[in-house]
Amino acid sequence: MKTIMIHEMPDHVGETVRIGAWIANKRSSGKIAFLQLRDGSGFVQGVVVKEVVGEEIFAKAKSIHQETSLYVTAEVTEDERSSFGVELQVKDIEIIHEAVDYPITPKEHGTEFLMDHRHLWLRSRKQHAIMKIRDEIIRSTYEFFHINGFVKIDPPILTGSSPEGTSELFHTKYFDEDAYLSQSGQLYLEAAAMALGKVFSFGPTFRAEKSKTRRHLIEFWMIEPEMAFVQHAESLEVQEQYVAHIVQSVLQNCPLELERLGRDLSKLEKIQAPFPRITYDDAIKFLHEKGFDDIVWGDDFGAPHETAIAENYDMPVFITHYPTGIKPFYMQPHPDRDDVVLCADLIAPEGYGEIIGGSERIYDYEMMKQRIQEHNLDESAYEWYLDICKFGAVPHSGFGLGLERTVAWISGVEHVRETIPFPRLLNRLYP
Prior knowledge:
Layout: E1 16-29, E2 32-38, E3 43-49, H1 50-53, H2 55-63, E4 69-78, E5 86-97, H3 111-116, H4 118-121, H5 125-147, E6 151-152, E7 158-159, E8 171-174, E9 177-181, H6 186-196, E10 198-206, E11 219-228, H7 232-253, H8 255-260, H9 265-269, E12 277-279, H10 280-289, H11 303-310, E13 317-320, E14 333-334, E15 337-341, E16 343-348, E17 353-361, H12 365-374, H13 383-390, E18 396-402, H14 403-411
Parallel strand pairs: 3-5, 6-10, 12-13
Antiparallel strand pairs: 1-2, 1-4, 2-3, 4-5, 7-9, 8-9, 10-11, 11-18, 13-16, 14-15, 16-17, 17-18
Helix pairs in contact: 5-7, 5-14
Keywords: Aminoacyl-tRNA synthetase, ATP-binding, Cytoplasm, Ligase, Nucleotide-binding, Protein biosynthesis
Organism: Sporosarcina luteola
EC number: 6.1.1.22
């Protein structure tokens, strides 16, 4: 007898198969019991008929507890009501481990309770769908960059310097030296781009930012490409093509998960390059017209400002050319203005905020050295980085996409804490 997984069942209609599964839920009615089974690949209903399986197996089916693990032998039959188009006519049940008093029951639970039981909450239908969408975004990310000639590079997590200063970094001792958990692999990727042309990384980053908003995590994952001989405008094209690619991949490969989350597909179907662009200058004017009198030129945008701008579009929107004073030291100045830099933030629609930050990078040695000094950074710690400008410098650009915010937007989840398997928040290091 063939042992299969739930997602394979449409290929085995009419066959008797065996699956390993857990009981997600159950109900019974007279002489029929309905078992909601899950195995990680999907959910399916198992129908247990007393006169078919006999008294012993039927009694087992009626008394079985939520999250009990078991092997089920059953015939796969067609069922149009099922998400996979099939259900199981159960013939035998073999219990592996009986779960008793499973803490997450089919009722409302508070957020803190669910976060305390995150290791079990992951088993729910909603969390299963979010994790599958996250996986598809990661898969399609590798697909996009490899198709377009990028090489995967793994920058270090322990660093002796920071691309954006050390005020929000986690400090540790590296034997007799100071070290920090990485907030970005960018500087190392710039070095790699000078060797390999187009590179990208995918890995964890850490921000010691004491924020409790629905958009923030202490530990999160970033996709960071860097591209030699690519200037600001070309980088924007790569960004919009990449975002459109991952959205369309999720639509194509995760229809059941999006349906389970109740996502409005029409909002995702229109996500196609090119994306609209608005300068920082025009964004300030727009916000003043909308009644945001509190913000002045030179201020960074907060969540309400980004949301107001995004609501004017039904697509992700680039805000370009931010003031020099509110951006990191490495960004290339505008060729005609010394008060703004060649950069852009990509703001997701529907109030999800910034999902990408990127810029053209400075490649003039003297200018880079000056900027490091102006930002009061330890020049000796950046000596290796200055070598990028000293030896064969070229125009180059890059960006970073925050995975969790992107998962939240595409899946329609309100808070990023549900978009990572085990979130690290300001007051949460458990489980």
